[in-house]
Write a structure and sequence with these properties.
The protein has 3 helices and 7 strands; from the N terminus they run αβββββαββα. A hairpin with a 6-residue loop joins strand 6 and strand 7. By secondary structure, it is α+β, with helices and mostly antiparallel strands. The chain has a 4-stranded antiparallel sheet, with helices on one face. The protein is globular, with a radius of gyration of 23 Å. It has a domain of 111 residues: Pleckstrin-homology domain (PH domain)/Phosphotyrosine-binding domain (PTB) (PH-domain like, Roll). It starts with a helix and ends in a 24-residue tail after the last helix.
Length: 161
Amino acid sequence: MAEENKELIESGEEEEIEVAEEPKKKPKNAFPGEITRERKRWGFFGIPWTFTKYILTQKKIIIEKGFFKSEENEILMYRVTDMSMTRTMFQKMFGLGTLTVYSHDKTNPTLIIKNIKHCREFKDILSDAVEKDRLRMRMRQNEMFIDDGFDGGDDYDDFDG
């Protein structure tokens, strides 16, 4: 490798070096472990005139809504079971997309993330974060269960003898 570089320098040829892009600056109110964030955009022209933010951290998805009255909700990463991305013709025209996240969360079993700018990248980052958190928790998909309130009627330890 060093010999190749010497030959390039001596011959006057320049080698192309890939420079990594500058990471996005994190906002002042960034959450600990924040990976990325997106804003819900107004459907026409993709203008961010809404007050809904979707924030991915290493352990959860946080949904912030509201201006006068703020509401914050979260879904733990390991609870996410599936996701799908859809893009209408108008969304494609303005570079937007909708991501649907299915989870075992009580308050948001189906989270619809509408009209976000970098939908595919957001989905890929979310997918990677879910897998990393499942590995961290040592959890597989088949170990997840839905708590439907049924206790199973544990009568096995009762003996009518």
